[in-house]
Amino acid sequence: MSDSKPAASHRRILAASLVGTAVEFYDFYIYATAASLVFGRLFFPVASPSAQLMSAYATFALAFFARPLGAAVFGHFGDRLGRKSTLVASLMLMGGSTLAIAFLPTYAQAGWVAPFLLCVLRFGQGFGLGGEWGGAALLAVENAPPGWRARFGMFPQLGAPVGFIAANGLFLLLGVLLTPEQFLAWGWRIPFLLSIVLVGVGLWVRLKLTETPAFAEAMKEAPPAKAPLGELLRDFPLQTLAGTFAVVCCFAIFYLTTAFALGYGTTKLGYSRETFLGVQLGAIGFMAAGIIAAGYWADATSPRRVLMAGCIATVAGGFLLAPMMGSGSLWLIWGFLSLGLAMMGLVYGPLGAFLPGLFPARVRYTGASVAFNIGGILGGGLAPMIAQALADKGGLVPVGYYLSGAAVISLVALLFLRRQAE
């Protein structure tokens, strides 16, 4: 392959890694959007709007605790049997759980059974996604030629803004076409129903893949690890621990600028759902631009250096959250969301090359997946709920400190990984 552009076979692999994660993240984001907008009222007893929103955010957090379990299970089979079959299985579990949410009864119809079933399916979403990102990242970087790892590794990350645009764009369209009563009664179910089409596309693409060269070579050199997770924790504890904390910033900034911001903007700030979704859609392009810039920058320097630069920028960005988000001006709110999501691109784009690079091929699926998804609990799983509680008690200033603190945690972790990551 030339240094100017990927060959046709590589473009098919990159398309598969992007399409698959776009489908998975679409599923994940429609839940985040619905949790911010309607799940509190539909699936929980009558209470204050803030209490219902907190309950919905709690179910949102549940998937993050399922993700490390999914990472361990899918990582086990991904390191022993291969990347392709594991990626297909994770997509089917995620898609099936998402589709089933469309048919759930509400609390008014089934009482406690409704939130219980919602939690079960949310757990299934998280379990499936736990095996998704690591496999998609390995599919890209293990097929990358020298000098292209970060640019190949950015393609799974680009699935995030694509999935977000599809999810929130659909909710915005429904808000325009349906009355609030229609949306609350049945309209919210449509994005979950439509996920079956996207999952079908993802499966069609992934079933055409072959195994990655790095995995095939590792299997020739030695038999697969009998217990990849045990080998990972025994031989690579520093990489696993520091890699976990290195991704905290990325999750915190994303879910504060999406799920929390949407809930806060449509309750405390009083904006309509359609208005705030439009503002977020206008900002998400900066995340995609940040991911692409980070991929090129990381290949020119190193993924770790780009991640550190993004963390430093996010520390400063946390101090802008309160004055810009609380200003009442949609332009300033859009400005902060655009800035935050651009910084998100810098701390997310290089992860596809950075985390797999910390581990050898025989435990790489498990290592990258476990670090990414446990970091998701610490950085994103509880972020909307914690931020909502902080905002209820002290306004947006402590929320900004929370974001800066998450960035400091990742920055310190990256400092400890210099020898392994450079």
Give a quick rundown of the structure.
This protein has helices at residues 8-43, 49-80, 83-101, 107-110, 113-130, 132-141, 149-177, 180-187, 189-206, 213-221, 228-235, 237-246, 248-267, 273-300, 303-318, 321-325, 330-348, 351-354, 364-381, 383-394, 397-416, 418-421. The protein is mainly alpha-helical and 422 residues long.
Question: How is this structure best described in words?
Answer:
There is one protein chain. With about 425 residues, the chain is mainly α. It has one domain (about 10-420): Up-down Bundle (Growth Hormone, Chain: A). The chain has helices spanning about 10-45, 50-80, 85-100, 105-110, 115-130, 130-140, 150-175, 180-185, 190-205, 215-220, 230-235, 235-245, 250-265, 275-300, 305-320, 320-325, 330-350, 350-355, 365-380, 385-395, 395-415, 420. Helix 1 packs antiparallel against helix 6 (about 130-140), helix 3 packs antiparallel against helix 5 (about 115-130) and helix 13 (about 250-265) packs antiparallel against helix 14. The two termini are about 25 Å apart. Residues about 1-5 have low confidence and may be disordered.
Q: Runs with pLDDT <50, length 5+?
A: 1-5
Within CATH, the superfamily carries the name MFS general substrate transporter like domains
Return the average pLDDT rounded to an integer: 87
**What is the count of helical runs?**
22
Q: Looking at the structure, what is the overall shape? A: globular
How many separate structural domains? Answer: 1
- Strand segment count: 0
Just name the CATH architecture: Up-down Bundle
What is the share of helical residues? over 70%
CATH fold call: Growth Hormone, Chain: A
What proportion strand? Answer: under 5%
Q: Report the CATH C-level class.
A: Mainly Alpha
